[in-house]
Design goal:
The chain is elongated. β3 and β4 form a beta hairpin. The protein has about 180 residues and is an alpha+beta fold. It contains four helices and eight strands, in the order ααββββββββαα. α1 crosses α4. The longest helix has 25 residues.
Length: about 180
Amino acid sequence: AILDDTLPQGILIQRLAELFYAMDMDGVEGFARLNMNSVGGILLDLIGARRGIARILGAPQTGLAEITCRSENFSTFTLPAGTVLTAETGDTFTVNDSTTFSTTESTVAITYTTNGDSSAIVGNTMTVEGFPQITNIEIVSLYHGTDNETDLSYRSRLLKEYPSTIGTIEYIQSKLISLP
């Protein structure tokens, strides 16, 4: 009865649905010029954002590095969180937590600076700038990261997850009816 277009409330809901549909179509026309099957990167992200479906971001590789310091004239020092360590492969990692060295050896948690896996392997050495008391840094463990969702898999998921009914007059009517 609420959708009966002979009653005032039915006419109002129908008219509101038509207005919202027209407003939505303005945006749809702009995005329609972007062919989802041929765009990638940020443009595909914009289309996904418009539909409320975000790209799945990956996670960086993590691991542990053993740090050895000079034993002669050793004095306590702190390696701050965020300190950049460079592997012999050129990949960069950051130290997760500030670590105070009260002995000549310590193990620190490290995180690759990019999502996914680095080309570094266990046993690679690393360097650090600004800490002359550090004599050796060796990667002792690495755990796999995950890459960001590719354009191809993101596009496929967008096409699968985005219901074709969104943006239709029927969809807008159902949303208006569900309002308190």
